[in-house]
């Protein structure tokens, strides 16, 4: 019997990330070059001494499954425990897609019962942070809590945008207010919970009976508060980011390349582990220029890289310029191409002399809420031919050909989805 | 599988000076993130060899540590595996191998217990990429007793450091001279052999019983007329890092695209121990040209024509050129490093100058502080 096991919710779509999560679950999206977003939570688990983690998948899980495998990089390949991928599945009488965070955990009660832990740690797979969950467990035990919720302090003037926890002098949660116009505190739930297993089981069943789309934040926590259970707030101090929008994803990545980043990947303590196939050096050629950037293994760089992040195995040809951009794995940026303030997803080819990200800052016409801060996103496995100009807040996906572009141009705010996708 | 692999990583070498004073040659760091032995080990694994014995002797700690992550080279676990042998004191043996044939003989049980019909023997410090299955096919087609992998070398002074062979029109070896003063041909043995396992056992037992211990002079040269020995000519990149100059030049060779492509980028890949380092970071002021860089490094100065290994820091205003900087070394602000080989964990404080020459790169030992 394990003391505490983790249940990692990695099933959401992350729809505000647009084409970034079109074919890939949000936790599998690359971050800071070589990591995938789920690596942070998984590494936190093993660094905290948690060696049994259920990963609940649902949306577009292929890349995620392949990345996690049997958990070797995070020492989660174990005979007793380890990582268990938990997709929705049919059980004897019923089974359905996961409709809510609590519903997903509820549907895997048999996994939990087999593990039979004393405590269950509920996590999500889409946040960037370093946290020692064992310290949170110590706090939970000290307070004799039924549930402990990790909370983050936000600037008081922003507090009314969030669900706020009001606590007493003993850190006990007395009230939960959703987006209060006059917030009484500035503590926001991080979506990280420690439950006593027996209690979790009881309330997941209750939640399942009452709500079809049973959710921890919306239903379970308020229910526990109403029934006056012992809920405590564990104050987390440290860097934490939810990279849920195209803009916040881009900004958070860019924070990693500042001279002394707030979130330090370069310290030996609390390493972040990831899965990658082969170790290769990166080569910077005679014509390479690098200024304030992060470059991953296997890259061959002959162009200018400024304020940008390159994932593994990216080829940047002579004369090419990449600025303020994120280029994901295996992309080929051909000679003299210019890329400015873009996110280029995995396995893309950008043709010679093409210019991506040039034009007026007009919001994307089809999805203005997603692409409106001047960032153009090229979806995975796309091809942009030579000598094409693509504007700002554009979306391109697929193997596009010269004929797809009027006057070799895609104006700002436009979306181009080609019928064929590169294999 | 048809053959087992044996990697000889047991010889001593004075010519590498401080670089090999505390590490086996097979442990020498190559091309920014590999160790020399990774190349031969990967060749073996990629050629379908499932069982490999590494025979080591001097300064083996670093090598043993590296090989402990055996899973990486994907050698079989059920019917094969990676075995590491060091000399062991028994009533017949002493603390060291008396020569390469003795090194093999002292581990003859490995040969006797194996079922595979053929053995591939190579050194741990040669840098090349080869599919040994091609050589095995050649060996079997010729009905050879032994096949020596060879190369046509450039006709220069270096020829005398090899075993030089004279071949007939079928590439059968008719003459073999170890390190001749006046080489007759430019066909050199690369020190990689395929031989039938049972024949090898027979020869080793015979040779050792006669008090002879060197594989090249006491086996090959001696048996060249008695056995059918064929030469397999290899024309890819091959380097033996047995001197400081060769070590330096080999690393610098990886700065050339065609070498990198052949050796590292093309399938199949070279496997090495995985390091969990973050991507290399280039801060404002970094100027990097014609270099190999690995993870965990933070660059703020100028680096050119150099090979940097993992977690190397180059301070602002520093200029590093034509140098090899190994893991975890730190180069302070405004330093000038030229034609140097810095071993692991070397610390150069601000404003220092470390300048060597192309013919004689200056070497700083592991852990040196300047």
Write structural notes for this entry.
The complex is a heterodimer of chains A (423) and B (370). Chain A has 423 residues and is an alpha/beta fold. Chain A is 18% helix and 28% strand. By secondary structure, chain B is an alpha/beta fold. Chain B has 2 domains: 3-265, Spore Coat Polysaccharide Biosynthesis Protein SpsA, Chain A; 281-364, Hexapeptide repeat proteins (UDP N-Acetylglucosamine Acyltransferase, domain 1, 3 Solenoid). Chain B is 22% helix and 29% strand. Chain B contains 9 helices and 28 strands. Strand 14 of chain A pairs antiparallel with strand 16 (291-293) of chain B.
| Cα gyration radius of chain B (Å) | 21 Å
| Total discrete domains of chain B | 2
CATH superfamily of the largest domain in chain B: Spore Coat Polysaccharide Biosynthesis Protein SpsA, Chain A
CATH topology of the largest domain in chain B: Spore Coat Polysaccharide Biosynthesis Protein SpsA, Chain A
Describe the sheet with the most strands of chain A: 9 strands, mixed
Q: How much of the polypeptide of chain A forms β-strand, as a percent range?
A: 25-35%
Unreliable parts of chain A: none
Percent strand of chain B: 25-35%
Give the oligomer, counting copies of the same chain as homo and different chains as hetero. heterodimer
Measure the end-to-end span of chain B: 52 Å
Shape, per Cα inertia axes of chain A? elongated
Task: Give the structural class of chain A.
Answer: alpha/beta
Structure in a nutshell:
Chain A contains eight helices and 33 strands. Chain A is an alpha/beta fold.
Set out the fold topology:
The complex is a heterodimer of chains A (423) and B (370).
Chain A: E1 4-10, E2 30-31, E3 35-36, H1 38-47, E4 52-57, H2 62-68, E5 82-86, H3 101-106, H4 109-115, E6 119-124, E7 127-129, H5 133-142, E8 147-153, E9 163-167, E10 173-178, E11 187-196, H6 197-210, H7 216-226, E12 231-236, E13 240-242, H8 246-255, E14 282-284, E15 289-291, E16 293-295, E17 300-301, E18 304-306, E19 309-310, E20 315-316, E21 321-323, E22 326-327, E23 332-333, E24 338-340, E25 342-344, E26 349-350, E27 355-356, E28 376-378, E29 383-384, E30 389-390, E31 395-397, E32 409-410, E33 415-417
Parallel strand pairs in A: 1-4, 1-6, 4-5, 8-12, 14-17, 15-18, 16-19, 17-20, 18-21, 19-22, 20-23, 21-24, 22-25, 23-26, 24-27, 25-28, 26-29, 27-30, 28-31, 30-32, 31-33
Antiparallel strand pairs in A: 2-3, 6-11, 7-13, 8-11, 9-10, 9-11
Chain B: E1 3-9, E2 29-30, E3 34-35, H1 36-46, E4 51-56, H2 61-67, E5 81-85, H3 100-105, H4 108-113, E6 118-123, E7 126-128, H5 132-141, E8 146-152, E9 163-167, E10 173-178, E11 187-196, H6 197-209, H7 215-223, E12 229-233, E13 238-240, H8 244-253, H9 257-265, E14 280-282, E15 287-289, E16 291-293, E17 298-299, E18 302-304, E19 307-308, E20 313-314, E21 319-321, E22 324-325, E23 330-331, E24 336-338, E25 340-342, E26 347-348, E27 353-355, E28 362-364
Parallel strand pairs in B: 1-4, 1-6, 4-5, 8-12, 14-17, 15-18, 17-20, 18-21, 19-22, 20-23, 21-24, 22-25, 23-26, 24-27, 25-28
Antiparallel strand pairs in B: 2-3, 6-11, 7-13, 8-11, 9-10
